[in-house]
Batch of 4 targets.
Target 1
Amino acid sequence: KVITRCSEGLSARKPTTRQGVPEEQQLAPTIEIPRPPSPLPPKSPEFDPFLRRFASPPLSARVGEWSRPPAGMGYLSTVIGHPTDGSPVSGGGLSQNGKFSYGYASSLGKRASMEDFYETRIESVDGQLIGLFGVFDGHGGAKVAEYVKHNLFSHLLRHPKFMSDTKVAIDDSYKSTDSEFLESDSTQNQCGSTASTAVLVGNRLFVANVGDSRAIICRAGNAVPVSKDHKPDQTDERQRIEEAGGFVMWAGTWRVGGVLAVSRAFGDKLLKQYVVVDPEIRVR
């Protein structure tokens, strides 16, 4: 007998046979296709495959957290602090108007301590939602990267030309954040950080960076670079360093003064004359 599935459940019947055809080939297997669940609304983060990649724990366990924004806030986001024990952390958010979503992930890897930070913020400026995202890769310690995380975007949002001339505001904010740190902490002479930031204002995306933390845009499945690494052996960077009285030498890789493998960064007080914090800004 062959067990078959029917609309009422399971039933048993004896199959009919055709002359010359083995019995096991008489019946094609039946496949029951379950009815698909009702689609989620387009603005739900559970619907967004990008957010599902980065969410931990699974979004299905936290839908309520996403669907109710904090009072007075114009965005939805998870709130997960920087891990102190080096454990991986991930999460994401969705703008209230459904225009964009974001995700983030951080992992210590094989290093002894975490020196890197990220920042994600969605703010309302003059009635317009603004997205601010950054990665800060520390070296020689975590102090500079942590300071930039907590202060760079605050300086930018307070800049009087933030909405009217965003490029100028970003440039000024990078430099003022660096100057404030160098003046406030005289003990971190060899500590520094790269920065790669993306600021979304309306339909314009402002990508700025110092150092070698790279920003990319995904188009049709292809990674398109939207920032340029700042390395000491690049012709323009090497010329600038040497004109300022510094030098570039090989020490496992090309380094400023034989020490630092990037030519632009926050901090690095002992090399500040050569390692500038002038951001390279591109508008998409």
Target 2
Amino acid sequence: MSDDGERTCPLCAEEMDLTDQQLKPCKCGYEICIWCWHHIIEMAEKEDTEARCPACRTPYDKDRVLKVAAANSERIIAEMYSEKKQKSQRAKTKISAEAMKHLSTVRVMQKNLVYITGLPTNLCDENILERKEYFGQYGKVLKVSISRPAGTSFQKTSNSAFGVYITYAKDEEAVRCIQAVHNFVLEGKSLRACYGTTKYCRAWLRNMTCSNPDCLYLHDIGSQEDSFTKDEIISAYTRYFLPHTFCMCDDFLTC
């Protein structure tokens, strides 16, 4: 034992690491490092004699020593891994709790979700919009949700229009839709298409298991580059979509 409390080998005076400390070569308790123990074993084999403990001169049981050392090392590694995992989980829980309030105001762009505005009201029907002659032609449609402005009556008039969210099975299908639909003139109205956004599942934000197997809200942290606060979305929407008087609503899903 050195002055600073570190365990050292009594033969070579080198510090004994965790692996050395698991060796336990002799029942008398005299401990040496693995290098010195191997050296004693090798010298004994060369001289065709028994390898003995330098302290009590008891013959070493090589097989027993190696077996005990391996078992102890595995136990130490398992304990260290378990402790590290527990610390990581505690830190994750703490971060999630602190970030919960912020994440509830964050919206994440979904690369398989398309938001379209300017559609004539005679098409205001989910079943019609998912057909092959409409948005179904660009890929497999998982969900169609019409965006109805909150607090206003939605009337089908010749001058009115509406927005819709189309959820596709694949990202590339959404890209095809945006490329084909954006600025397309339908019944005299110019359509606008862009990626849609969604929010985090309320149950997930509360560290609870979501009970809705069809929930389309987020259950994992989205990428930072695709994440925006509601204020940022409103600001961008005001710059690009205000003339069309539609709300980029992201509360179209049910959880």
Target 3
Amino acid sequence: MIQTGLTNVTNAARLGRPRRRGFTLLELFLTLSMAVVLMTLVNAAFRFYAVDMDSNDMDMRRTMLASAVMQMIEDDLRASLHPEPLDTSALETLLASTAASATGGGNSGDSGDPGDAEAAGMDDPALEEEPVTSVSGVAVLQTPGLIGDQYQLQIDTSRLPRLEEYAMLMDVDPGNLADLPSDLKTVTYYVQAADSIGIEDPLAKLDATTSTTAGGLVRRVLDRSATTFASTSGNLAALGQTGELLAPEVTGIEFSYWDGVTWQIEWNSDELGELPLAVKIQLVMVDPLVAESEQEPRLFQHVVKLSMAKIIEEEEEEDLSGVGL
């Protein structure tokens, strides 16, 4: 009787509370699968966010670098110098009158004959200095001004020398030309090809494994007298190794010059007599740490207006229809 009662109590207790059951193999497999899928989605979300943030950061850095480079070129262009040609008509008149009086072959008051001015030596072509252009693209203008083509720009700027420019006199590097503190500088912009003999990247010197010359945008600021002497004396190798590598990210640069009607790809202030009304600058930039095949170059454009420029007046052709020509 006692055993039967205990059995009934035990059965009643089992019926009164739920039975403990474990996870089946199917439930465990489904749970692990859902966890793996969830972790994969979370990892993909974090990776997409990191790549997107890195891409946005690189775009922002390129934009800031392009803005700084454009501002530097704009400051140099706005400081460009081009003096007005000297009016020597009064001197020509005086010399012509003096020559006519000395020879006794004409009236001293008749000073308007251009032949007398030529006799006085005022229009001798040998006295006119022609611009000297070297094979490396370095040009020496007769008067300070601007000369450039589609891929290189050279301007003469006028600024007061800064105090740190006097420290450059202590530079003992034989590969660089000695610059002189002066208020008349020749500034040149061009893109240096990679693996060429030219300007070395200062940061590349810290890496012993790098033995090639980096390409990029080069800015050379040198005294105009030193530039003229180096160009005319044939010291082009040292001139090509003098300058500063501004941005290795710049792989291409183009200049265009506005004459008031169309954009020109070349300009020479000695031949045209004036500065261009505006200069258009186009920069092509890439990330030097990423292969070019894996990225798309970005193009930046900026137009700089020159306040000292004047419209070039074209000479009117004489109407010769009345004489049958």
Target 4
Amino acid sequence: MRHNTLAAARGLSTWRASLMMGMLAAGLLAFASAQATPIRISANNVVPACVTPERLMAFLRERNPDLDLRYRDIAAWYKTHGEALRVRWDYAFFQMLVETNYLTFRRGNGKRGDVHPRQNNFAGIGATGGGVPGESFPDVSTGVRAQLEHLVVYSGEYVPSPVAQRTRTVQEHILSWTAPLSRKRPVTFQDLAGKWAADRSYWRSISLTAKRFYDAYCRNDLIATSNGSHPSGNASSWSANVASASMATVVAPNPALAVRPQPQPPRPEPTACRVFSASYGGKKAVLIRHVAEDAIEYTALEVLDGFEASMAESYMKTYAPQGRLIGEFPSSEQAFARAYELCPGAGG
């Protein structure tokens, strides 16, 4: 009898340990993806060790198998210039993927964008819309440097003699709002929305791209940190989360004590609506409907052919909980057309 009791106790202990490890791993993943990432590297904001130029290039080639050979070292240039300028070069790389649609320089409908590949302009610098192509740079390295210097200005710091004419022209204007903001808190990639690009969903597209990379290449690294080391990022916050998880007491649920929740009446849907755009890259699009607190949101999400359902599910899990997929379309234009049919007020 005593042996059975000991075995049961050991089994419960193992169950508790496994559950705690699972909770800890889930917490680490949520922590890694939930923050709006500051532009500049600091002690509390570093590029995770799981991010390497080789992994970034593998991620890029998965989505653009026909990648031009002259881009073979582009991720290494992001690291080189990013470390020199103290910029989160991983997120700058993800920004580039959004801007260039994975270096295809094509829109979601397959048409060529305003910027041509030969310009080595990886973030639309000077491309102000209406067919304006923006600046050109002599090589890949200089184009990457131009983007990162522009990000430095957006972080609130003056750049002497930047390589891009656009940066030289507008940096005083940019600094008029980024410098005061940077004295209150770090300027983040989220702050670029509506500024660097007119699209208010700009950060959402960048963070979606980042999430796909981290889910594919960093998940095991984050889970492994539960064995002792902390992931790159805010170490103090991570330590606090670990401490809380370590001190928590995990108790097996007792079905006899369960309280049946009373059914709640359905909440009336809001009458207002909004239309968003987001992109995982690709030519096809899906339309997602999500009921937020104050409005019904319709998101036209660009996706890769053959991954419509999985990408929509990934998006809804992060940005539109309890959302639902209401249509698949050959292009984002058709998805937008349907969104504005459902939400005509957003088009005004």
